[in-house]
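Reminder to self: tokens first, then the designed residues, so the page reads top to bottom the way the pipeline ran.
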């Protein structure tokens, strides 16, 4: 089954169970001080769960664009190194707002996976919250009994609070969850070690696919729990992982979601995927990152030196450097992958098709500007490595990392990554101190400038929608279609 069909089947399945389909909310979150990017399907329903708003529909399903590169969920360091954590991914979800609860959620999840998608039952494991005496929380007996009616007891795993209890924050709705994991190892490997022992153990072939959260309590400020008057269901399934399981691949990157992108890169670079681990990581990082970058730009977040904009710039520069060092790209290349994004995602996420030209231009400019200094920065790093080797030292000074940042545009995480690849580390505290010093210097400078001649208002003819944006991208603003 192709990825597109797998996605539409999910939606249609829940529509047949009276769910209302809602489109994905933007990946970029505005006006929420607690969140920069959408990191789960439930984000857009937060107010319904908190009771601030009455849900429009009691049953909802969707495919949500998510980004996990900052805050509570930061998977960036895993991406490309493993084959199942992405920066940007789609989370398929179904919700009940005070409507159905555990029974339906569990039975439908099982029906969809085993009867519709036909995943082999003997490869699936489910987990149930085991309880937590310290927090006065009981085992989720209800979920356990429901699962026991469907799967043999030895496929049920009891899980700790870390994996099987969900909380929105220190206070608010919370509850136990049940997860579904799949064992994608070979028959031989499965005969040697039981899959049950590998669930939640970072095994690359025994992976979590679906999380069913049962919101049944409200955590009060004094830490106590109160039963919620209306109980809710919030589920999230990684689409790329589901596709991999259905297509029986050993990596998300071997599915038809990433295949066309890998092939395009192979053609462009003249290198093959699947021959050398370091080159493969570069392939995976690039085909992952181009999605994150394109989707966020389509939703209005332009790379910049601030907050969310800097997150995107860091991802982009990381991809550029992987391409430069391991695939031999000395000229901008990322932007040429954007037509594929439009082609493969334009039907479900029309914004990436509508903004295709704009996305490509922003990326191309970013690449061009970073490539201008990348080579110098890498040479400087080579020199530093040689120096440290001579002295028998292993730590790159904060001041040096700051110079790389300030003069050559190397985000700290990029310098740390290159350092790690070579057996070094970076003095991140020292870097932060240098950054602070620079901020103090520029504050002092701008204070002394206020008495001078300044243009307070210059009529540039473009609508002001953020400093970095107009400053850097005003000339391509016309390509933005909405
Ligand atoms: P993991 O333990 O693998 O990091 P998680 O427990 O952090 O996953 P949840 O917060 O439960 O993930 O999210 C629901 C589902 O989203 C997961 O079951 C998984 O299929 C998928 N998922 C989570 N993080 C990622 C990611 N970085 N890339 C792709 N899919 C992901
Ligand atoms: Mg995680
Ligand atoms: Mg997990
Ligand atoms: Mg989980």
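Designed residues (482 positions):
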């Amino acid at each position: 089954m192709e990825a597109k069909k797998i996605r539409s089947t999910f939606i249609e399945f829940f529509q047949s169970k009276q769910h209302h389909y809602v489109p994905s909310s933007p990946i970029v979150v505005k006006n929420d001080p607690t969140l920069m990017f959408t990191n789960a399907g439930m984000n857009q329903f937060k107010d319904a769960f908190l009771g601030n708003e009455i849900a429009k529909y009691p049953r909802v399903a969707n495919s949500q664009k998510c980004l996990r590169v900052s805050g509570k969920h930061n998977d960036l360091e895993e991406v490309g190194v493993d084959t199942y954590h992405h920066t940007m991914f789609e989370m398929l979800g179904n919700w009940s707002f005070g409507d159905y609860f555990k029974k339906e959620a569990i039975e439908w999840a099982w029906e969809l996976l085993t009867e519709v998608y036909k995943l082999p039952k003997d490869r699936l494991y489910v987990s149930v919250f085991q309880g937590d005496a310290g927090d006065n929380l009981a085992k989720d007996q209800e979920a356990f009994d429901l699962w026991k009616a469907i799967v043999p007891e030895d496929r049920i795993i009891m899980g700790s609070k870390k994996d099987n209890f969900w909380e929105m924050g220190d206070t608010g709705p919370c509850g136990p969850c049940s997860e579904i994991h799949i064992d994608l190892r070979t028959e031989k490997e499965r005969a040697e070690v039981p899959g049950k022992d590998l669930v939640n153990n970072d095994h690359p072939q025994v992976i979590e696919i679906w999380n069913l959260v049962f919101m049944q309590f409200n955590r009060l400020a004094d830490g106590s729990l109160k039963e919620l008057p209306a109980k809710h269901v919030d589920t999230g399934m990684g689409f790329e992982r589901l596709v991999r399981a259905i297509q029986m691949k050993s990596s998300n990157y071997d599915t038809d979601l990433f295949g066309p992108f890998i092939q395009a890169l192979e053609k462009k670079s003249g290198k093959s995927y699947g021959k050398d681990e370091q080159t493969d990581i570069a392939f995976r990082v690039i085909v992952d990152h181009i999605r994150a970058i394109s989707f966020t730009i389509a939703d209005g977040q332009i790379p910049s030196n601030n907050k969310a904009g800097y997150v995107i710039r860091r991802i982009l520069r990381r991809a550029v450097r992987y391409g430069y060092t391991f695939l031999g790209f000395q000229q901008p290349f990322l932007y040429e992958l954007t037509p594929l994004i439009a082609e493969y995602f334009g039907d479900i996420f029309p914004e990436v098709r509508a903004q295709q030209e704009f996305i490509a231009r922003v990326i191309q400019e970013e690449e061009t500007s970073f490539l201008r200094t990348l080579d110098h920065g890498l040479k400087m790093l080579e020199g530093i490595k040689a120096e440290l080797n001579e002295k028998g030292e292993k730590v790159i000074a904060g001041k040096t990392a700051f110079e790389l940042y300030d003069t050559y545009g190397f985000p700290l995480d990029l310098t740390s990554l290159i350092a790690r690849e070579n057996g070094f580390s970076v003095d991140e505290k020292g870097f932060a101190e240098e950054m602070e010093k620079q901020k103090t210097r520029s504050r002092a400078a701008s204070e002394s400038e206020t008495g001078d001649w300044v243009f307070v208002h210059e009529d540039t003819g473009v609508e002001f929608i953020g400093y970095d944006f107009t400053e850097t991208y005003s000339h391509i603003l016309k390509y933005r279609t909405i």
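Residues 68, 75, 85-86, 89, 91, 208-211, 236-238, 240-241 surround adenosine-5'-triphosphate (ligand 1) (CB under 6 Å).
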